[in-house]
Amino acid sequence: MRETPTIEPRRKGRSGMQSMLIPSQQMVAEQIRSAQQGVFTELGVLRRRLAAEYGADACCPVTVERHLRAIADLSFLALQKGEPVSMVTPYWRMVDPMSLLATRLAGGAGFIRERLAAERQEG
Q1: In angstroms, rounded to a whole number, what is the distance separating the alpha carbons of residues 7 and 25?
Q2: DSSP bridge pairs for 10
Q3: Would you state the pLDDT for residue 12?
Q4: With a cut of 70, which residues of the chain have pLDDT below it?
Q5: Is 94 within 8 Å of 50 (Cβ atoms)?
Q6: What are the backbone dihedrals phi and psi of residue 16, each rounded to the nearest 5 degrees, phi first?
Q7: Which of 7, 28, 35, 50 has the most crowded Cβ, counting Cβ within 10 A?
Q8: Helix (H) or strand (E) holding 62
Q9: Using CA atoms, how far apart are residues 63 and 58, in angstroms rounded to an integer?
Q10: How far is Cα 6 from Cα 28, in angstroms, rounded to an integer?
Q11: Do 21 and 54 form a contact (C-beta atoms < 8 A)?
Q12: β-strand 58-59 against 16-22: which pairing, if any?
């Protein structure tokens, strides 16, 4: 079943308005799962895809990053408990290993680099 998106109007510039998608964690996770294996995809690309999919002009960057952090925590914990990689949301595909964000996510930049490299070898 597809979720009903939350789209709110917001000001853009002095006199314009735009529709802003406030995605759920599930919406973000689905987009992450559809990202290409072994390749870093910028969060901006994910936000544009979500906005287009749900008919909004933009997608809230703060909400997406908050959900990414929660997804990373859940996925990393599941891997630590022995879940197979195929069963977790591959958040490492959305994080530049050289970014400050990578150092703040579960597993850190080293883990993100390792997972991307492993996916390249598998694919």
Answers
A1: 15
A2: 18
A3: 72
A4: 1-4, 13-15, 123
A5: no
A6: -95, 165
A7: 28
A8: helix 61-80
A9: 12
A10: 13
A11: yes
A12: parallel
